[in-house]
Design goal:
Oligomer: heterodimer
InterPro entries (chain A): Cys_rich_dom
Structural class of chain A: alpha/beta
GO molecular function, one term (chain A): oxidoreductase activity
Mean pLDDT of chain B: 96
Shape of chain A: globular
Number of strands of chain B: 10
Largest interface: A-B, 74 and 69 residues
CATH architecture of the largest domain in chain A: 3-Layer(aba) Sandwich
CATH architecture of the largest domain in chain B: 3-Layer(aba) Sandwich
Number of helices of chain A: 13
Protein name (chain A): Oxidoreductase
Strand order of the largest sheet of chain B: 1-10-7-4-2-3
CATH topology of the largest domain in chain A: Rossmann fold
Low-confidence stretches of chain B: none
Number of domains of chain A: 2
Organism (chain A): Paramagnetospirillum kuznetsovii
GO cellular component, one term (chain A): cytosol
Shape of chain B: globular
C-alpha cells in the first residue's frame, strides 16, 4: 500500500486469546497505532475469529461467529490484528467459508481489509522506532500462520532491527511449529509437549533472554513450557516489547 | 490371505515413539539432513515457484482428464505389448499378481521398491501362496530382513541407524562377520542380492509416472535394482495406483526435476527407466512379458470429490513428511498404515475410512510446513480441515466413515462455544466471569491436566481488553 493510502482511522481486532489472557499486548498494539496519529476503533461487539470451530470441523459454528465479526467492523477502515493466526483465518479462510452464502461479498471485502499488526506498521505506516531501553538480546518466534498464511516474517524483524539496543539473534529452528495448534495441544498432548520442549530448548540455545512473537497462542505455549522448566528467558508479544522499548522501560 | 483389519492408534503409538530416544534421534538427524539438501536445490525462489506451478498444473490436468487418459494409456500400453490389469480392491490386485506368477510357474520374485505393493501387503500374499519375494532396494531389503514395514515412503529404513543395521545384518546374513563399516554392509547386501536377481523367476516394481500418449512406465531409482528387477527376469509385473497417469511425454521432465530434488535433494536420480514394451524380436535382453496392474482401492471415491481429489496429485516425493514437525518426532510407524506423514494423514483416512484412521486428521497443528514444500501444491492443511469437517458433519459420500467422530459431548461443547462467541452479551458476561474465577480452576481438570504436564497454567487477566479499551478511551465505532 503506498503512503498515499495511509488511513486516518483503523479498526483493531483484539483476538479472544489476548482479550482474556494478554490484554496488555492488545493495548500495546493499539497504543502503537495511536501514537502514529491514527484513530483506533475497538468495536465492543467483537469476539473471536472463529478459527477454533473451523479447525475442529464445525463450519456452521465457525460461520456463526465469523458473521458477528463481519457485523462488528462495518466501515471501510483497515482491520489490524495483533496475531498472524487470527489474521490468517480472516484473510485467507473467510472468503472460502462464506462461498455460496449471502455473506460472501462482504466476507471478501472484509478479508481484503485485514492486516497483521507488524505488517501494517511496516508496510502501511512505515514507522520509525527510537529505542530508549537497555541493551538486550532477543530472538524471534514466527507463528506458522503468520509466516505461511500472512507471509509475515521479515516485517517484525525489520521493526526489531530498528531498535538500536536490541540484538536480534536468529534461532536456526525458528520456522518450526511450537506445537500449540489449538486443540492439537490437548488432542495429542504428548506430541505437543515434545514439540514445545524442543522449541524452548532451541530458544535457550540462542542465548536470548527474551523471545518475541506476534502470536499469543504460541506465547502461551512457549511461556508455559519455559516457566515450568525454569528456562532463563521469557516470551513477550512484539507490541508490548516495542512499546516498552520506546518508553524506555 | 485376508488383510488384517487395522485401526489407527496415533496417540498410543506416538507415546511409544516419543519415549524412544534412539528413534527420535534417528528421525531428527535424517529429516534435518533432507531438509537442508532440499533447500539447497530450491535456493532460487523464482525457479521454485514457477516449476512447482508447472508441476501442479501437469498433475491437475492429468486428474481432470483421468478417465480418458487411463483409456488412452491402456490402448497405448496394449499396442506396445504390455498387458493391463485393473484391480478395484487390494484383494483383486493380489489375486491378479498371483495368477500371473502362477501361470508363469514363478517361485521367486525380485522386487523393486513399490509403496503400492506395500498398500496391497503383496509380500505376505505371495509368501502365503508359496512364492518368495525378495526386496532389492537396499532400504526395503533391510526392513524385510527385520520383518518391519517402511517408516518413510522414499527411505523405508530411515528409522534405523548404522549400528542397528549392522546388528541386523550380522544376525540375518549368513557368514557375515559383524561390521559397522557402511561399505562392507552395502557389499554384504549386494552379494546377497546378486544371487536373488540372477535366480528370480519374475520381477515386480512400482511406477512413478504412467505416460498416456506413449504407453510408457517411468521408474526412477538410485541403486540400479529397479532396472535389474525390470529387465533381468523373464517376467515383469508393475503395480501402481490409477492416479499416476500423466498426459504427455513432455510432462515427465518438469516432474522429474521436482521429484528427486524435493525428495533427497538430488538433481536427478542415478537411474531413470522408461519401459515401453517387453523384449522385442531380435533384442538381447528385457523381460518377455510385461504386465501393469492398476490399483483403485478407494482412489475413484477420493476422485469423485472435487476438493479432495487434489490428494491424488501426489507424486510421492516425501517432502511433506521430511518437513513435518509431527512426523519428525513420532516416525512413520506411528501412522499404522502404508503412507505416513502429512500425505498419509490425507490418504489413510480416505482410503481406509475416517472410522478407521480419523484420529490422524487431528494429529496436525495445521502448521503448513508440508504445503509450503509440496512440489505439486497440494493444500494439505485445507484438506485436513475438510476431513475434520467430514468426521463430524458429513457432506460427501466420497468420504468413507464420514460422521464417525460425531458425539453428543462434541456437539454440546461446540454449541456452547458458539453461543458464547456469537453473542456480544454472552461473551461479555463469560469473559467477566472467567476473569474473576478462571484462575481458580484446578490443574487437574481434563484439558488443563494435559496442558500442564509440561506447562504452567495460563493466567486469566483480571480485566479484558474490551474493558481496558473502554477505560483508555478507545472508540467503539
Amino acid at each position: 500500500m503506498p503512503a498515499a493510502d495511509r488511513p486516518d482511522s483503523v479498526y483493531f481486532f483484539g483476538t479472544c486469546l489476548i482479550d482474556m489472557f494478554y490484554p496488555e499486548a492488545g493495548l500495546a498494539g493499539m497504543e502503537l497505532l495511536r501514537r502514529e496519529g491514527l484513530k483506533v476503533v475497538f468495536p465492543q461487539k467483537q469476539t473471536c475469529c472463529g478459527q477454533p470451530a473451523r479447525n475442529n470441523g464445525h463450519q456452521d459454528e465457525a460461520r456463526a461467529v465469523a458473521r458477528l465479526q463481519l457485523d462488528a467492523f462495518p466501515g471501510d477502515w483497515p482491520i489490524v490484528v495483533p496475531s498472524g493466526s487470527c489474521a490468517g483465518m480472516m484473510k485467507t479462510h473467510y472468503p472460502e467459508m462464506f462461498e455460496g452464502t449471502p455473506d460472501h461479498a462482504r466476507a471478501v471485502a472484509f478479508s481484503a481489509r485485514v492486516f497483521e499488526l507488524t505488517q501494517f506498521l511496516v508496510e502501511v505506516l512505515d514507522v520509525k522506532l527510537a529505542d530508549k531501553g537497555r541493551p538486550v538480546t532477543i530472538t524471534w518466534h514466527p507463528s506458522c500462520h503468520s509466516q505461511r498464511e500472512m507471509g509475515v516474517l521479515d516485517q517484525p524483524k525489520a521493526l526489531l532491527r530498528q531498535l538500536s539496543n536490541v540484538t536480534l539473534v536468529e534461532n536456526p529452528r525458528e520456522k518450526e511449529c511450537c506445537g500449540f495448534g489449538g486443540s492439537f495441544s490437548v488432542r495429542q498432548p504428548e506430541v505437543s509437549a515434545a514439540m514445545v520442549t524442543d522449541k524452548v530448548n532451541s530458544i535457550e540455545a540462542t542465548g536470548a533472554t527474551q523471545v518475541v512473537s506476534g502470536d499469543c497462542g504460541c506465547l502461551m505455549n512457549i511461556n508455559g513450557a519455559a516457566e515450568k522448566a525454569a528456562k532463563p528467558f521469557t516470551g513477550r508479544h512484539i507490541a508490548e516489547f516495542i512499546l516498552e522499548r520506546c518508553h524506555g522501560r | 490371505m485376508a488383510v488384517e483389519a487395522r485401526k489407527s492408534d496415533f496417540t498410543g503409538k506416538a507415546h511409544v515413539a516419543l519415549n524412544d530416544p534412539k528413534l527420535r534421534a534417528n528421525f531428527r538427524r535424517a529429516m534435518d539432513g533432507l531438509m537442508t539438501k532440499r533447500a539447497a536445490q530450491f535456493a532460487d525462489a523464482e525457479e521454485w515457484t514457477s516449476l512447482r506451478a508447472r508441476g501442479a498444473a501437469i498433475r491437475a490436468n492429468a486428474l481432470a482428464k483421468l478417465p480418458e487418459l487411463l483409456e488412452l494409456l491402456e490402448a497405448n500400453l496394449t499396442r506396445n505389448g504390455i498387458k493391463v490389469h485393473w484391480a478395484e480392491t487390494v484383494a483383486e490386485g493380489n489375486a491378479i499378481v498371483l495368477d500371473i506368477l502362477q501361470k508363469a510357474g514363478a517361485k521367486t520374485v525380485i522386487k523393486g521398491k513399490s509403496m503400492v505393493s506395500e498398500e496391497m501387503h503383496l509380500n505376505a500374499h505371495l509368501e502365503a501362496n508359496g512364492i518368495t519375494p525378495v526386496e532389492s532396494d537396499l532400504g526395503e531389503y533391510i526392513i524385510q530382513l527385520a520383518g518391519e514395514a517402511p517408516s518413510h515412503i522414499v527411505m523405508p529404513c530411515i528409522h534405523m541407524n548404522k549400528v542397528e543395521i549392522a546388528e541386523l545384518f550380522a544376525d540375518k546374513i549368513k557368514n557375515l562377520t559383524y561390521t559397522e563399516d557402511v561399505d562392507e554392509l552395502c557389499a554384504a547386501a549386494r552379494a546377497a542380492l546378486r544371487g536373488a536377481f540372477a535366480g528370480a523367476d519374475a520381477g515386480i516394481s512400482g511406477v512413478n509416472f504412467l505416460v498416456a500418449e506413449t504407453g510408457s512406465l517411468v521408474l526412477i531409482e538410485n541403486e540400479g535394482n529397479g532396472r535389474l528387477s525390470t529387465t533381468l527376469p523373464p517376467l515383469h509385473i508393475a503395480v501402481t495406483g490409477i492416479e499416476k497417469v500423466i498426459e504427455r511425454l513432455e510432462d515427465v521432465a518438469p516432474l522429474l526435476s521436482l521429484l528427486p530434488r524435493s525428495a533427497t535433494g538430488q538433481i536427478i536420480t542415478t537411474y531413470v527407466n522408461m519401459i515401453s514394451s517387453p523384449r522385442k524380436p531380435g533384442e538381447k535382453d528385457g523381460p518377455k512379458e510385461v504386465h501393469l496392474v492398476l490399483l483403485d482401492n478407494g482412489r475413484s471415491r477420493v476422485y469423485s470429490d472435487v476438493q479432495l481429489a487434489d490428494t491424488l496429485r501426489c507424486i510421492r516425493c516425501a517432502a511433506c513428511m521430511n518437513h513435518c514437525p509431527v512426523y519428525t518426532r513420532v516416525g512413520g510407524h506411528t501412522y499404522t498404515f502404508t503412507y505416513p506423514g502429512p500425505i498419509g494423514k490425507l490418504l489413510s483416512p480416505q482410503l481406509e475410512g475416517l472410522d478407521c484412521a480419523g484420529d490422524q486428521v487431528h494429529a496436525s497443528t495445521l502448521c503448513g510446513a508440508c504445503a509450503e514444500v509440496c512440489p505439486v501444491q497440494i493444500p494439505i492443511p485445507d484438506l485436513l480441515a475438510r476431513l475434520r469437517t467430514e468426521a463430524v458433519h458429513p457432506t460427501s459420500v466420497a468420504v468413507k466413515g464420514g460422521g464417525s467422530a460425531r458425539s453428543l459431548a462434541d456437539s454440546l461443547g461446540w454449541g456452547g462455544w458458539t453461543a458464547m462467541y456469537s453473542s456480544p452479551l454472552v461473551y461479555k458476561i463469560s469473559t467477566r466471569v472467567m476473569g474473576l474465577v478462571g484462575n481458580l480452576m484446578p490443574a487437574s481438570l481434563p484439558m488443563l491436566k494435559q496442558w500442564t504436564s509440561v506447562r504452567t497454567k495460563p493466567k486469566f487477566a483480571a480485566k479484558s481488553l474490551h474493558q481496558l479499551a473502554r477505560e483508555r478511551g478507545f472508540s467503539n465505532e
